[in-house]
Amino acid sequence: MTAHAYKRTALKPDLHSSLTMRGLVFFFCCLVALATCQAARYDLSLNHRKTYEYTYEGEVKFGLGKPNRAKSGARIKCNIKISGESPQAFILQVSDVTFAELNGISGKSDFNQSPKLTQRMAAQLAKPFKFEHSNGHVRQIQAAPDVSETTVNIVRGILSFFHATVKTSPTVYELEEAGIHGMCQSNYATEINKQTNNMNITQVVDIDNCRMKAAMQNGMASAVLDKDSKQRGESVISTVQYLYTIQPTEEGGIVKSAYALEQQHFSPFNVKRGSFRMEAKKEMVLIRVSEGGKPANVGQLQNRGDLVHKLVNSDANIPLVMQDLAEPKAKAVRMIKQLAEDHKNQINRETTEDTLKVYQLLRMLQDRDLDEMWVELARNDEHRRFFLDMIVEINDDRVLKFLKKRFQAKDVSANEAVQALLIAMNHLQPRAELVEKAKEIMNMEFIKSNLHMWPTAVFSFGSLVYKHCAYHSPCPQSVVQPLLDLANEGLRNRNETEMVIALRALGNAGHPSSIKTIANFLPGVAANPVDVSCRVQSAAVQALRLTARRNPHNVQEIALKVFLQKNCAPETSMLAIMVMFNTKPSAALVSTLTAHLEREKDIHLASFAYSYLENIARSKTPDNHYLSIYCSLAVKSLAAKFGRLSYNSRSLQVDMFDDDLLMGTSASINVLGGPTSVLPTEIMSKNKYFAIGRIMRLMEFGIRAESLKQLFGPSIPGFKGDFSSSDFQAIYNVLKNWESLPNDKPIMSAYSRSSGQEIFFVNIKKDLLEYIKAAVSPSAPKGTPVWAAIELLQKGFSWHWTKPLLSIEARLLQATTLGLPVEIAKYYQTVTGITMNAKAAINPPQTQRLGDLLNADISLESEGVMGFTKDFWIFHGINTELFQCGSELKSKAPVELPFKLSAKLNVGKKLLELDIPACKKEFELISVSSNVYAVSRNIGDPESPKRTPMIPDESNSQQQPTPNNWHRKANMCAKSSIYGVGVCVDYEIRRQYFNNEYPLYSILGFTQAAIRVVPAEATKPVEKIHLEVNGNPTSHPMTIRHLYETMRRISKERSQEQSNSASNERETRNSQEIMMDATAPQPVVSIKAIAMSGNQNLEGFDVTLYNPSEGDTLKAQMIVSHVGDAANWKMCVDASAQSPANLKAKISWGAQCKPYEISVTAAAAQSSASRPTLEAKVQWANVPEEMANYCSSMERYIPGMALLSGFNQTWESNANQEVSASIVSASSDSIDITIKLPKYTVFRQAVPLPFSSTSFREENAERNGQA
Q1: What is the pLDDT of residue 1121?
Q2: Which of 151, 735, 803, 1153 has the least CB density, counted as fewest CB within 10 Å?
């Protein structure tokens, strides 16, 4: 059966052989396919038995990305060879290096080789580099010890092409991996080319949101990040993309070609409306792969780390300067001496930028070099001052060591020490080791022994702690411990001064660990309450102002507890509210505060809190976006109870923000008071600036009435509130009792802050006032400080002072795919100088007491010049010690005021005379210039930088100007033929506008503006200009008496005229109101400005002021007369105020104060709907033809301007020769405006106010009630 079956299935021999062969072929094909599949590896790998040769090219360009615009750039070309040393260790050799620069107009300029820099770079790159490579990742890069970090970074840029995570499945994946930009998120997409079997890989790296980014930021620690602002736009956006072609082999994938493109968009505004652009790209192409190859002899190598870019000494590489740094000490000494010489008499605007070169040189020096420079420069006052002002910018431990030596040797004055310490500590790098060294400075006996240096050192140390914690989170408590110890020690010793200084320093530090210590000084918060004064409580609450952002929850809890303390001074509760809102509280917390305010009994606290909530409710800045919504709801809840409060405890804030500019500003003033004194306890003002996604606190000022409040009490006897002379007399009567104040308490205190950091604090005590009183007392004998100053003036003295100050050095550096650092930097510096020579004479000279000077004739001859030059830069580009390229905005603003005058003063006669020489020479008073350039600098030729204006000047070009060109140039002068002097304003502006890229293009282009004082042709030769101020004029000049008689006669004539016309009646009535009696009131003060022309008749102007006030009506009169031959031009001004809300003024001019006349009235009233109204009116009987023509030409623009401002318009006939305006309070924060002109009316309803009009309503209601 079986055999039979077998026979039946048996095949013919030839057919059997054929099928067997086919099976074997098929099986073999399967095996080959399987083997091929297993050998086709795509993951990046290098075979240590082979040598790989590539061409490499990397270039970077900076510009605007538009045609016909300047750009700058750099290009590096080379060949690279990689050979193996072991399965995971490889040697990289670079050869045929060329470096080229680009600087010029796009499309018209190309890269030009730089032989010197090429030679320098090739020498470094020619040395072998060793690296580890496994699993597609580069690790452990090694180089020779003398190879710079910049060169290693360039090698990192090359090796980054061999660093990628390749997967065959899935084809789209993402992961976080370390690369040249840091630890960043990468997104991969892979595709296999079916024809070549090569894999194409696209890799996109999110370099804006790296977890650990190869970047560094300096100079912005005090600028708070504003997350809400970033939601409206960005000022910097970066992207990078890699494209690989991977050839599979059995050992792994070989990079056949690779390309990378990185783009960065930067704008001082919002990048979506135009930006400066960086385009960095690199390409690598495989030339050959060869077997074997002996690796180069590498010699001694040092480990330089992994592939992540390493930032080099950025402080020495100032992006605006390129100079040979050989022998830095000698060059620094030479340049400091040269700067002192250049600015010896006046500021030389041409050399102020050299200060940056000195800063760079000083940052290259060692401790010994600085000591040697001090020995050489300290002997000369000018050299010494420049050296001390500039060494503070070294910003590391070297400056602390230098200052410590000076303080130990006591070879600097207290004034020099305070200035150097303040700048050095606030510009110090915020590193942990520098914080420790700063503690040593703060505790030096030299510092503690001086009343001015000690607070400066403590405040500056607090600022350093704040900056340190801004870059190191969490921040250890140890850095702030000295300040905590100081506060606790002051509390134990009950030393108020020590407590206040320590708390203010803790406020600068803003350290979260200080909250527990600060709480010990606050009522209702401390576990063991301690009774401290209100001034200490105020300092403690303010000490939480910066901690509020770092630990909002705990600060909110403390602030709420302080607010709820009923036995707490209302001013302390007001400060608690301010600190609470610094934390940006939630809606729930705002609601809690609102609920407690509804039951608040203290009207001062309620008034302040309500106005503070109103301010935030109206705020337009991004940081208050959500908070304004919460506060608007709170205001609606509280309006019925507190909307009409108007007490001296109030808050006022105005702000604005523009999304296109990504900029804004905020200004506020807070007045804190209570029921115990009519005098506010504390007045605080602060300003903020919003830009580039950060909040920068500008200057803040505060003044606090300490024991001074005791003098005033809840009211001032005789004070009516109209600020008349009787009110000032009432205040003076109170202040006369200042000697009754306690000796051990400050009368008042004041502080100032910059960038949120307190830099100045002073207590004004009774002993200081007693010292000043004794020094300026009429009975003060010789030997007092005032006498010493007078004697110095009599001998004659010369004084010269200069100060360079680098106010801003803000820098952001980050890696690029090329391994070169891209930097965005802002620098702002000022060089200020004053030169003065003066000599005084006293007649009679025999004076024994200071009071004798009151009736003596004092003359003073003085001559000198004062001024400053401000330089400002913004840089966006590559910055290394080898070369720089990028876009650079450069602005310069010099101000200079030369003076020469003779003065005579007699205090008893209330007479001051000044003689100013005639203007014989033109000088520039102030100027501003700016432009944006494409810049290139390299160390091969540092003295020949290349700068091309970003927008070329097409005014002299043969080509047709582009349609968006805008060029304005003007010169305007106002000259006086009487005084022989004139003032000229000239400007030139060149711009190219693109609406879709505004506002960036508003700063691009050339700008030059200046105000100049020039000689003018005079009617008579002018020798000098005589100015005279007489505060006790005893009689009227003949011209004035004649004027009064003329005005009286005109008044009588007009009164006798009869007319039925209403307008004539009004004119007659108005004429009678302005005219004066024949017996003119005595003048209050007279001012003369006369051109002296030798023996010729005098010519100039005489101004006389009168005060003919009667009863409760305040009046003021002024007569301006032209003095000279047959001169009869005069101007008469008559103003009166029946109340602060009812003002009138009339101005008439011409021959004997006619025929031209304008009257102005402004009065508060009540509208038909019982709403407060302010009405103003301008009327004119006759005006000069030139004025009428000018006003008519301006009137044509009013309808268009009104339309753009949201006003409506109606054509109607109104009163002729009259313009009136009406402002009606529509609500607590809006008004209705109506403006009537002769031919039409413009109006707008519900115009929003930056402040509440509740105080206006309250005042109006009180006035009506009194009526």
Answers
A1: 93
A2: 735
